[in-house]
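Fold tokens
===========
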Amino acid sequence: MTEARNIGVNVEAPRQECHDSNCPFHGKLSVRGRQFTGVVISTKMRRTAVIEFERLHFLLKYERYEKRRTNLKAHNPDCVSAKDGEIVMAMECRPLSKTKNLVIVKKVGLEKGFKERMGAREASKVQVHPKEEISTGETE
């Protein structure tokens, strides 16, 4: 097993080894810049996770804050392999694709009530029904 390299942040290296060239611990990807902590809401893409985090936005007119959600795509290395509902820490890196310029470096824990929250979000979406057959007025 090769030694995981130091990425320059106080983060423990994962125990599992991977052969991903875009892994900050076992590949040549360097991390720098901002750090985000959020919840993984989707891992349907290969080696990619969608991370969501909430932030507060100040409304000057009402002198109050409102919650806003932001979704970011991050590289999910094989040694980290974060799943849906986990709280993760992601760091900025060079652009890996058109929309992906973050990499997951640490799993923090599980979010409580994640399944219920995602179920409620799906239920609140507007249902689009296919066009119903037009009746001719004849009864059978």
